[in-house]
Amino acid sequence: MSLLELRGIEKQFGGVTALRRGSLEVAAGEVHLLMGENGAGKSTLMKIVAGLIEPDGGEFLWRGQPQRFRRPADAAAVGIAMVHQESLLAPHLTVAENMFLGREDCAPMGWMKRRRMRERAARIIEEHRFPIQADARVERLSPAGRQLVEICRALVQGSSLLIFDEPTSSLSEAETKEVFRLVTSLRERGMGVIYITHRLEELRSVGDRVTVLRDGETVHSGALAKLTIAQLIRHMVGREVSSLYSRSPGTPGEEVLRVEELSNPPLLNDISFSIRAGEIVGLAGLVGAGRTELCRALFGIDPVRAGRVTVAGRELHGGSPRDAVRAGLVLIPEDRQHSGLARGLSIAQNVALANLPAVSRGGLVSKTSEMALAEKYKKKLAIRMDSPRQLAGRLSGGNQQKVVIAKWLARGARVFLFDEPTRGIDVGAKQEVFQIMDELAKGGAGVLMVSSELPELLQVPDRILVMRQGRLVGELPGKTTQEEIMRLAAFEKEPAA
Amino acid sequence: MSGKNLQRLLPLLTLTALFIALWIASPTFLTQRNLSAVIRQTAVINVMALGMTLIIITGGIDLSVGAILAMGGLFGTMAMERGDPIWIGVTIGVLTGAACGLLNGLLITRLKIAPFIVTLGTLGIFRGVTLIVSNGLPVHRLPAGFSVLGDGKLLGVPFVLWVLVACAVVVHVILEHTKLGRYTFAIGSNEEAARYAGVPVAFHTTAVYAIGGLLTGLAGMIEASRLMSGQPTAGQGYELQAIAAVVIGGGSLRGGEGSVPGTLIGAFIMGLLSNGADLLGISPYLQQAIIGAVIIVAVFVDEVRKRRMQSA
Known about the structure:
Number of helices of chain B: 14
Helix content of chain A: 25-40%
Largest sheet of chain A: 6 strands, mixed
Number of strands of chain B: 2
Strand order of the largest sheet of chain B: 1-2
Largest sheet of chain B: 2 strands, antiparallel
Oligomer: heterodimer
Helix content of chain B: over 70%
Structural class of chain B: mainly alpha
Distance between the termini of chain A: 45 Å
């Protein structure tokens, strides 16, 4: 009998469908890989299994019995544990204290049996020969050590199903091997293991079966050994491509951005590329590949350990967004609500924010010029608003995006970095954002577009750079295929020529 | 001893150094009379700070304790003025404090408003209610026996010292040996992790504020006993002294850190500073500035220690 059986699981988040037909069957003593593109619904499905969120519909069977978890403790009570990507431990407590957190061994009145818990913790650590101490404070452990603590938590609770959410993305080579060794030993003890991963190559030896999700739907489930990588990629990508945009690239002009051997290990390693005036360059990669980190390093938010960045012939000093903006390189960040837009300020104030000298007289901001500036970009970018006095936070996602762009346009930037510019905005607004990028390029700017949406990457950019694990692993022409991008982004092997 | 351990012991060493310095500098310092006075003066802040330790470990704060102290003291003394026995008056004062703390905890966990804001609000509410009920007038007609709590002696030492030691032992045991204490640290260390581990976060957070209120109510009765009156304006600014004691003793306003011995040391450092300044004839104005500087230095030293530990 199966340990876990999910059929037709549905979940919506505020009108957005994360899962529509999520199915999964895991047996005791098997390692089950869960794969899919960014946003395919893997994490949502696992959060439902671990009781972190409740499904809207579908069947959930645990050892053949229907279950409904309202909180993580419910899932833990039947024997389901999750090793989180971002470790969910109390850093000020010790390893042993974290292992027993929430299920302390207690006498009446809440009096804890501290020694007994410590001894049991030490025994489990010893049994698996984990390189951690029961008395060590968790804040002193490496990311790998913290994951071991989460695994110990599951062991001490006698869990029979353990979920790993991309555990190796933050681990070194040696630590990754350690996790694999552990997964194998858990399987031998008859536990079920679900392993979310992008890195199939490494897991060939470990996994028994694989389930692939696409657009919130289970599209394939079966034995891993029978599946070729090409087949797997076909299952993973194949998303519907609705005709979003097509642009006619012009002839690229002079180089506006040159990046040479940029490094900030372990997040970014030895990255070199350039962008010419009039070009839109796509940047593809899976979550955690280092795309956002690259944008942040170029813009000067994160430090740069080595390498050179030149914008329109001027070398950046790194570590200073002010310097980047002066040179003409700007970032339209992914979470524009936090770092791109001052939600509590008006549209006019947002547009003027990076251009205060232009709208000031004698050190005082002129409301009239501020309004005039906003009106100008309202027309140019077709920002839908009642008045520039309106609060920027009240606008729709697409229009917020335009306000951020207007701010930098007014500043006369030459290089625009767009980090996931279409996340959370509707199809119509996406079209407009693409059109703005096109116009920026036609006007002589260079555009770098980070996106997780493969169809978008195929339609908008002139060429596509692909990152994997902090490295630039390849460049593809604009007219490539989703399969090619995924192959480069997810797998170790070079694409077939 | 390694440098790291030395830094951890710094509050205790500071206290010892201060003690020895005052012993040398002032002939009256090491007299039973003066030391008793120091204990009596610091007892109120000390008892309050014990509760504040729990609250700060959860990553919270309680700005309303000064007002709770006044309300507890007033309600307790009013009962005695009415003719209730002393033990009933004290119990009423303590329970009033617990009720105020419970309200703070419920507002914080049910309305999900930041503790700073909730207790800034209840600071005004509790003080206002106290002033309205008392009509702004102190309660004076109290049974003579009530003065034992604040000014009496037992086995040759001030009675309040026994009370303080009892409270400190209980809070220390709660923190180190019970589930409540473990969850107090866990909530302050990583609330999300605690919730995912199945810790009833709201319940334990509320409990911690209630305990803080209870201890503050007791501090209010000690204060009333020392003054032999229930003052509706008592305790103004005490919240900052209680917070300072916790912080000097190694508590972190970001949560997850703090201890009973640390807090006691912190409170006594402040107590000795002001006592020493009095003995040496240093102006009370300057005293405030000195204590302010000590707070900043203490926290800075602790931050340096933690940063080193993390980079080690």
